[in-house]
């Protein structure tokens, strides 16, 4: 699902298992905005459970955006950025290790694991779940005053059912 992967992404020449929409997002099927938002929230909850440690998740909920190159009245994608902050800084490493393991099971495949170019060389993990048509990008902010994980769940491109509308928020 991630178009900047160093490995082949779904829908590439080496994997024709799903149709990729213009703009790099795979086709996620037909759903109402409420159904798609609910599915992305469930994936975020799954990621939270995968951390395996107690912590606080930030409050902002999912948003709805257009699918690049597609009719904005017919197609949409759901994104859910949030932060996870464990009560103890040492639990951040435990959470990231748990995520590395869990995001290679149950349909999840790690696409990239790397340190970014920031001054703190933050650890980043990108994983896709082709069955659920979602991708997650996790950044470990270990050297911040309040250590946390920045998590962004992104859905594929949904088509709204006939007679329904898309509320972009």
Binned strand content: 25-35%
CA-based shape:
elongated
Continuous helix count: 2
What is the CATH class designation? Answer: Alpha Beta
How much helical structure, as a percent, in the residues? 10-25%
CATH hierarchy: architecture? 2-Layer Sandwich
Give me the secondary-structure category.
Answer: alpha+beta
Number-wise, the strands total: 9
Average pLDDT works out at 86
Question: What's the gyration radius in Å?
Answer: 16 Å
How many strands, which pairing sense, and closed or not: the largest β-sheet? 9 strands, mixed
Order of helices and strands: EHEEEHEEEEE
Distance between the termini: 22 Å
* Overall tally of structural domains: 1
User: What ranges have pLDDT less than 50 throughout 5 or more consecutive residues?
Assistant: 1-22
CATH-assigned fold name: TBP-like
